[in-house]
Specification:
The structure is a homodimer. Chain A has helices at residues 6-19, 24-39, 50-59, 87-105, 122-129, 183-191, 224-239, 278-293, 309-321, 327-341, and strands spanning 2-4, 69-73, 77-81, 107-115, 133-139, 159-166, 169-177, 201-202, 217-218, 263-271, 323-325. By secondary structure, chain A is α+β, with helices and mostly antiparallel strands. Chain A has a domain at 180-219: Wheat Germ Agglutinin (Isolectin 2), domain 1 (2-Layer Sandwich), CATH 3.30.60.50. In chain A, the strands form 3 sheets. Chain A has a 7-stranded mixed sheet with strand order 2-3-4-10-5-6-7. A two-stranded antiparallel sheet of chain A has the order 1-11. In chain A, helix 1 (6-19) packs antiparallel against helix 2 (24-39) and helix 2 packs across helix 4 (87-105). The mean pLDDT of chain A is 96. The interface between A and B is large, with 71 and 71 residues.
Chain lengths: 342, 342
Amino acid sequence: MIRFTLDKLEALMGRVLARCGVEPSIAKHVVGGLTEASLRGVDSHGVQLFPHYVEALRAGRINGAPHLRFTKESAATAVLDADHTFGHAAGAVAVDRAMALARQVGVGVVAVRNSTHFGAAAYFGLMAARHDMIGFASTHATPHVLYPGADRPTLGPNAMCVAVPMAGEEPFCLDMATSAVTFNRLKLVKEAGLPIESSWGADADGVPSTDSASIAHLFPIGGYKGYGLAMVLDIVCGMLSGMPVGPQVSRMYGVPLSERRFLGHVVGAVAVSAFEAPEVFKARMRAYCDGLRAQSMRDEMGVAMVPGDPEKRAEAVRRRDGIPVAPELLARLEALDAGAQA
Amino acid sequence: MIRFTLDKLEALMGRVLARCGVEPSIAKHVVGGLTEASLRGVDSHGVQLFPHYVEALRAGRINGAPHLRFTKESAATAVLDADHTFGHAAGAVAVDRAMALARQVGVGVVAVRNSTHFGAAAYFGLMAARHDMIGFASTHATPHVLYPGADRPTLGPNAMCVAVPMAGEEPFCLDMATSAVTFNRLKLVKEAGLPIESSWGADADGVPSTDSASIAHLFPIGGYKGYGLAMVLDIVCGMLSGMPVGPQVSRMYGVPLSERRFLGHVVGAVAVSAFEAPEVFKARMRAYCDGLRAQSMRDEMGVAMVPGDPEKRAEAVRRRDGIPVAPELLARLEALDAGAQA
């Protein structure tokens, strides 16, 4: 598999987006969000999504030259109308505002309306955590999650990120879907010949299944708990922003790419300094994480990690060796680039 | 099993706490929190805890006449020093402040330090949700949760509640521990002769077990996801408040009741009106929940519920028939009451 340097990928995607008329202030977050996810090893939300986004842009789903505006504001809150632009840019503008509010009053919460897929929630949580804030980001998503016992899905594998600053290394970063697994993960597990648990998903009729080929819907983590968490994320992302919720949330794939998504997100920032001296807090965070990493495992070869550790390992390798790009993706990127340069 | 009316239980507990010198402003939340949990069918966090609390009060762990004070304040945040009083009262004072802040700036977040066990998180989340706010409450707890593969527990089954107002009925209320199950639930499952899943807990050496008698530690929901969530709750409850975290969190049982707990909590309130007209939001919430309740189930007898529904059913029955009190608890309550009236 070929590997791209970060610079080369950034330049390629930048050229394609510019050619499509995407404003530089928007394009930088599409490129930034996708390359950060790929660098961190989160390939499902990385560069591999780029060709899909370009198609959605050309077909009219995504608006590359939006009129972003805050439609409602208070001292600690705001609502951003994203005018159907890339969710990456909408989320970044929202978290910038949340951070500005948190600097003033300790906390900022911003709901985003009329948005599209925003990629990895970590992109937004990490932005806040790099400025001594606890960052929060969440989105709802295409309904693929089944209420245990139901016969069709009603909620998305709605996702959230909480990122927390710590001394001497990149932030703690929990970025999770509320489904037990994702379709991507199911595919990888099957390819690796590992067993699939019946609590992960169900077939088209809702019957729990351990055959990845027949799994059509996903179960939530922890039964009613994960379903409840997915509802909470749907409620804040969809109802604080006035967007559709539950089974009415639009689909990412399998529908015309000219159709708008009408997604909502919520991002938040809490200034650590409103509660504790940031240096004290960050030193405690580091000691806490180091303590959990050093905990005793039953298997001597076992390694305990904290959220964000696998991504930090991947990033160290990929910054050195480049970002792997599969042949099929390479061909699509080269075709897009050739079009951009024509 | 005998049943107590709400009035009778409130009066009995009020007499006992008054006799122990607990200030009325504190006692009302101990009584309110415990009876609300019992009414809602959450017996693990209800009146059955009352004798334990009275012992902890007499032994010096809990301070019945505290000097509560806010040690740090901003326009959207505060830190409350609970002076080792009942967590029920500390949480209620904190959520009152969070609601006052949210009325002013849209959001309020309050961290509590030097607290004790606060009972059911729902007590605080519901307070905010009854005033057209999204209520959040969280606490850390005695370390009983095992990192998958580790040989001893490092985190508590840290708990959170999110409560959301809806039209025409009590709020949506997700109140959950981040462990797959609780010890209480394990006991009930065993008594009912139902199977125990190996993903629920482990024996004293950390080996996953399906024998409830040998389960010493609990697993988190969804593996690393639940562990990560438990860390997030530990971080906000313990580090924003300057309290111990992780394996250093104090134990509720098995240690002298004279020992202070030094627990932290975080509560929050988000004013719906900062984002959306409350009447619109609450009507949407109701339609959303009714839609999910009406979803089609594979088993025709199956019933879909949303968070808070089981508790609403229990409350309807218990308001009519009274709160069941087991014989052993009855004897302890009567002894406490006799002491109070002596």
